[in-house]
Design brief:
Blueprint lengths: L3 H12 L5 H8 L3 H9 L6 H11 L10 H8 L4 H7 L3 H14 L8 E8 L7 E11 L2 E11 L7 E14 L2 E8 L5 E10 L6 E10 L7 E11 L5 H4 L3 E3 L8 H8 L9
Antiparallel strand pairs: 1-2, 1-8, 2-3, 2-9, 3-4, 4-5, 5-6, 6-7, 7-8
Helix pairs in contact: 1-5
């Protein structure tokens, strides 16, 4: 059952991403007076109008009815408009169509919230646990993830907060991610992951590399391990678990510790 109040709030947030509501209505093909009723919560759009709104913003219908707090976490990155425009370009659509011909039945298997682990280049000897969410939009995968770095004085106060938004591709049973840091707006990262199917719990292991916009920070590369948590979008309780941990912290899955601490830099065949 769709929550109309959620849709109303999320639609208002989306309107913040465009120039004017009148221009958006013209491009979507919906009467302005009718659209105002959606914003006021007095009317719910028809299936065709709902599809038009979702397609304009590059989102699935169901995501428009998700919890507003979770929805804002997904769209508030500064590069949201970039990705919306990017996936509408002809060459990107050609690329996406080629991917979909291979993977149209496998996309939903990857969606959901993961905890992402890697060694820290800022906190030597520590492991960063970030929260990573993959979701489906118009037959393709996108993702966002959040890193939180606590103050080293032991106060627990968060000194640094990073958020990344990007595209996810499934090619030949490998998961490729490319994303931009959307708070500082100064970093791009690439990740190559392989799913490990022999475990009863879902894990993906791989390598991530990052390039910053400043010469003060050199390009970095690190092993990455991701542990599946749940289906759906990221929630506040997931974000609160993003932090920096000691390698022997009992909350880190054994499979993750084994992979990050292994002597080899390659991914063993499954």
């Amino acid at each position: 059952m769709h929550n109309q109040e959620n849709f109303q709030e999320n639609l208002k947030m989306l309107c913040e991403q465009v120039g004017t509501v009148s221009e958006m209505c013209r491009r979507v093909g919906i009467n302005r007076q009718q659209f105002n009723k959606y914003l006021a919560g007095t009317h719910q759009p028809s299936k065709s109008n709902l599809r038009s709104i979702a397609n304009f913003f590059g989102l699935s219908n169901d995501i428009l009815f998700s919890n507003p707090n979770d929805f804002r976490s997904m769209i508030e990155g500064g590069h949201f408009h970039l990705f919306r425009n990017l996936i509408q370009t002809p060459k990107m659509l050609m690329f996406i169509n080629e991917l979909l011909q291979e993977n149209d039945s496998s996309l939903s298997e990857l969606t959901g919230v993961y905890e992402r682990y890697h060694h820290s280049s800022i906190y030597k000897g520590k492991i960063v646990r970030s929260v990573f969410c993959i979701y489906e939009k118009n037959g393709m995968l996108m993702h966002y993830y959040i890193e939180r770095f606590p103050n080293q004085d032991g106060s627990g106060k968060i000194d640094y907060h990073f958020k990344y938004h990007g595209l996810t591709f499934l090619i030949s049973s490998r998961i490729f991610c490319i994303d931009f840091e959307s708070i500082q707006k100064n970093e791009i990262t690439f990740t190559n992951l392989a799913a490990v199917s022999r475990n009863s719990r879902k894990f993906v292991f791989g390598v991530s590399s990052g390039i910053a916009a400043t010469m003060v920070r050199q390009p970095v590369a690190a092993k990455v391990a991701m542990h599946f948590v749940t289906k759906g979008l990221m929630k506040k309780e997931h974000i609160r678990r993003a932090t920096v941990l000691s390698p022997d912290d009992p909350s880190i899955p054994k499979e993750v510790v084994d992979y990050l601490g292994a002597g080899t830099s390659s991914i063993d065949p499954v």
